[in-house]
Amino acid sequence: MTLIGGCWIWGAIVQNEYTLHKPALDWDDSEFGRGWALYIFWQINFSLTYNFGFWLLSFLARDPKEIVRYMSVARAAESAGQCISSGISSTTAPRISWFAKWE
Predict the structure, then answer these.
(1) CA–CA separation, 75 vs 79, rounded Å?
(2) Range of the domain at 23
(3) Labelling 92: which of 10, 15, 60, 67 has CA 20 to 30 A away?
(4) pTM above 0.70, yes or no
(5) Would 38 be classed as within a structural domain?
(6) C-alpha distances out from residue 8 to 3, 27, 71, Å
């Protein structure tokens, strides 16, 4: 949880800097490495959390039928989260505008 929380704070800071000062996001840009490293850490967080969730579900199940049922519920929750994420990313409202007030 510390790694995930740290990455979200780091992501908010990087997003705020990208909002205030539009980077080119090219290999030669000095700001590219920070955003790229954050992306890699988010991918690591996703994989660790996903594997832990699968382990947790298999640990809770007492027989193979329960594993299928638990996994179905977990995948349904994942799909619902992806639907919400898709809806949020399709809006045109700024996602981090309240940070810009602090600068």
Answers:
(1) 6
(2) 2-90
(3) 10
(4) no
(5) yes
(6) 9, 23, 27
Give the model's confidence band at 87: pLDDT under 50 very low, under 70 low, under 90 confident, else very high: confident
Q: CA-CA distance, 32 to 17, in Å (whole number)?
A: 12
H helices of the chain, in order, are 2-20, 32-60, 64-89, 97-100
Q: Give me the pLDDT at residue 100, please.
A: 54
Half-sphere exposure of 69 toward its Cβ, with a 13 Å CA cutoff? 7
Query: Is residue 78 one of the residues assigned to a domain?
Result: yes
How confident is the model over 46-77, as pLDDT tens digits? 999 989 988 998 888 888 888 899 999 989 99
- When divided into structural domains, the chain yields a total of 1
